[in-house]
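<tokenise_the_fold>
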Amino acid sequence: MMINKHAIIAILLVATVGLGCSFFPKKGGAYQGTLDNFSIDFPAGSGDVKVDSASANWAPSGRTYSKNFDGRSENYRTYEVQAWQMDPSRTDGKDLRTILEIGLNGWGDEPGTVVRDVTVNGRKGIDSVRTMELGPVKMTFRHVVFWSEKTKTLFIVGVTATKKENVATAEADAFVNSFDFGG
């Protein structure tokens, strides 16, 4: 039995596309956090996004999705999405601002922290920036917090950098502004 070379090419093409779709968590260039129902555009594409389980004293479970750039240099920065499945007892009956402030974990009251209201893709949130010393290094943290009432998920979109200005660059703003979630 002889197989037509065009049939072999068609089969390989279909298999390649099928495998590519399952191995790369992209859709329209955005990273799809399918476990937590969100999408975001990481700088330099969706490759190399690391997914880890996370824990906090205020949430039963969570995951972080992160990507680092320029490690061990003065231009170091990390882009991250944290998705926290919240216990309804922590959020039921609370207004949106109170729920969002849970994600700041007390940072909103720290001296030098700037917190402002934002809207990204029609979703209301809070955007906070603070700089702190960690040993010999100063790090600046930008955390933008959103709440999904539908899935009871608290999302924290973060940019961490050794240079303070890197948390507010066009790259950082594009990352934050690309974030969207279902519900």
Observations:
- Confidence is low (pLDDT under 50) at residues 1-28.
